[in-house]
Amino acid sequence: MRRTSMQLAAAVLASGLAVAACGSIKMGAAAITGQQRISSATLSDQVASLTTAYQADNRKGIKPQRAVTQMPQQVLTWLITFRIYDELAAQHGISVTPAAVQSQLNALAAQARQQKVSTATYVSAAGAVPPDLVPQIGRYFAILSAFQRRLDGGKPPTAPARQQALQNRISHAQCLAAKNLGITVNPQFGQFDYTTFSVVPAPSQLAASPSPSPSASASAKPRLTPPC
Fold first, then answer.
1. 193: which strand partners?
2. CA 140, CA 8: separation in Å to the nearest integer?
3. How big is the chain by its Cα radius of gyration, in Å?
4. How far, in Å, CA of 103 to CA of 38, rounded?
5. Rounded Cα–Cα distance for residues 156 and 113 (Å)
6. Nearest residue to 182 (alpha-carbon basis) of 190, 192, 170
7. Any domain includes 3
8. Domain span including residue 81
């Protein structure tokens, strides 16, 4: 079967969220962001949507670029990311219009056409995004784009050092937004790793090495507290 190699924009693949692993979780919640919760039922529905998308992609010979065994963590990452960026927008007085969101969706659709696939296939296979969440992806991109323009004055840096400095400022703002929400993740669905800005599976105590080396422990252990 034909295999199509696809990648979303760097912001989609590299971005994530800041989630504290402490705090109480209300019954039926996969995560809590501020005063709002992401229900386990919502997460389950979106994982089912992504599973269906993967099945459709597979029939076209398109393989997902992310581990299918970690779908709950990947989908929960996106659901919280959207709330993180809403908080970031509120903190920095950023308001995006429907037209700005649609512009981002149009750009995403254009990237999908270049790969000769649908937008739903593009976002699911490349970014583990359930097709139902495509509108939220548009809003996320619109907020990110507006924030970048504010930081760089509308002149994206070309020098690697300046590009990294810009990414560091975005990551810091993202971290502060998440910290302000006091986000908690239900341990049933994993834990947040500040190193990769993503929800990752909780480590198995049974599978853990009884005497790991200090260097191995440092490299494998997720960072669970905000660095900001």
1. 198
2. 13
3. 18
4. 28
5. 25
6. 192
7. no
8. 10-201
Are 32 and 178 within 8 A, CB to CB?
no
Residue length of the chain: 228
Element containing residue 100 per DSSP (H, E): helix 98-114
Distance of CA 76 to the CA centre of its chain: 8
Q: Specify the amino acid at residue 228.
A: C
128-175: pLDDT as tens digits:
999 999 999 999 999 999 999 999 998 899 999 999 999 999 999 999
pTM (whole model) above 0.85: no
Query: In this structure, what token pair is assigned to residue 86?
Result: 């809403």
Measured distance CA(19)–CA(107) in Å, rounded: 29
In a domain, 96, yes or no: yes
Classify residue 208: in a domain, yes or no. no
Within 10 A of 22 (CB to CB), how many other CB atoms are there? 9
Name the nearest CA neighbour of 72 among 183, 199, 194: 199
Residues 189 and 77: their CA atoms lie apart, in Å, by 10
